[in-house]
Amino acid sequence: GQNIDQPTEMTATEGAIVQINCTYQTSGFNGLFWYQQHAGEAPTFLSYNVLDGLEEKGRFSSFLSRSKGYSYLLLKELQMKDSASYLCAVRDSNYQLIWGAGTKLIIKP
Amino acid sequence: DAMVIQNPRYQVTQFGKPVTLSCSQTLNHNVMYWYQQKSSQAPKLLFHYYDKDFNNEADTPDNFQSRRPNTSFCFLDIRSPGLGDAAMYLCATSRDASGSYEQYFGPGTRLTVT
Question: Using the beta-carbon criterion (under 8 Å), do A91 and B98 form an inter-chain contact?
């Protein structure tokens, strides 16, 4: 079966750095997405990786290792507004998007 | 500026009473998706349309139907809602189903079944 694993919950301090990991086992690979979802709201797109390496976008960076079936989202200079769930999603060989259940990130002052 | 619009934002229906949720988009995207999301769970894809081509997920119950009368609009019909159908329903669009094209989500409709 296809599976996306992420930690259920993480806690970090305002101003710090946090890394949210995602491991996947899917039928093929055609890209990995990270989305942010605030409580009660819709997911919003953060990043896309299809090749190995690091993609940087402001305070957020996303890394991919296809051989390890692994990605992480790195959030720097954490702000209170970054409190949200972060969902990892992988596009498989049929171009279906397989979603993780998300990591709830709690930011403390 | 709204790009993916869902109405209503909150819907209360009675057990077994049909309900229709609507979604519209101003992005002129080819693909439209309907997801069901329950608390602390991954979004579950119910169906998607590539233009007019309808794609039903294998495990989507027959109780759920969808219509896409034109590029801009898509509807989700729940014929006989059960208590287990209470969830957030998310509509999303993308320019294409492949490549780096991300999905744009509407604000969702939270469905309560009494």
Answer: yes
